[in-house]
Predict the structure.
Amino acid sequence: MDAPSDLCYAPVHTAGLGAKLCAELTEPPDVVIHAAAERRTDVVERDPQTVQKLNVGATAVIASVCEKLGILLIYISTNYVFDGTKPPYKPSDAPNPLNKYGQSKRDGEIATLEHYPRAVILRLPLLYGSIERLNESAATYLLHQIQDTSKVQDLCDYQQRRPTHVRDVASVLLQLAQRHCKGERVSGILHWNTSEQLTRYQMALIITDVFNLPRIISSQTRIPLLLARHAPTMHPWTSQL
Ligand SMILES: NC(=O)c1ccc[n+]([C@@H]2O[C@H](COP(=O)([O-])OP(=O)(O)OC[C@H]3O[C@@H](n4cnc5c(N)ncnc54)[C@H](OP(=O)(O)O)[C@@H]3O)[C@@H](O)[C@H]2O)c1
């Protein structure tokens, strides 16, 4: 594997996928990076059964196919497998997801390791990068929010995030793939995040300055409702890896 352009995309459907993939892969790749998932927390809360099929069911099939064909599998997971009470987290720390999305990704990790104990699990924080639509990342979506200057935007200044650029993640993935192709053992649970920690309010301040927008935002420093136990989706206050 020389460059990210060698990476390819394939649709994931669980029914008959294992046998079909095994039959179709006459020239199996060296590495499969499994990033497909439903990661919108509100969607996962609304329809956990359907999401389970993709985030866990398809993951189990992909892991067993990779194991059978001797392909290194890198499963992309999330810091949301942790509850945020004891950061920074080591790969050996016990997960305790607070919401159904985090639980589905943890279940995906378990399914991966059950079917392919030597697979790689790469846990990542909030991601951003080149986009076509602002809603592709919680970080870029902030621009959409603060462009609306008709009202003061009350933004969370409590939950700590580690916005990490996907180009850096691609570089990590490429290095893992290259090491594997050189014959090095690449396996186990890995964590990767940037060293910079920001709240949504702090991210919005930076975006406001970069785009030279009027500062019609305010910081919501109290514990946001999203963290309260009765809220529809709980988020960890921080899950530094
Ligand atoms: N975004 C983050 O901040 C973040 C943070 C940590 C970890 N992660 C993890 O990183 C991975 C990628 O997340 P993302 O932010 O890139 O999510 P995304 O923008 O929602 O992309 C999800 C991808 O999954 C694909 N997908 C969904 N259902 C599929 C199916 N049935 N068959 C084939 N592909 C399907 C989508 O393909 P289409 O575009 O064709 O629908 C899309 O390319 C996920 O595993 C997520 O849990 C994300």
Remarks:
- Residues 48-69 form the longest helix (22 residues).
- DSSP finds seven helices and eight strands in the chain.
- Residues 11-12, 35-37, 39, 54, 76, 78, 105, 124, 126-127, 136-137 surround NAP (CB under 6 Å).
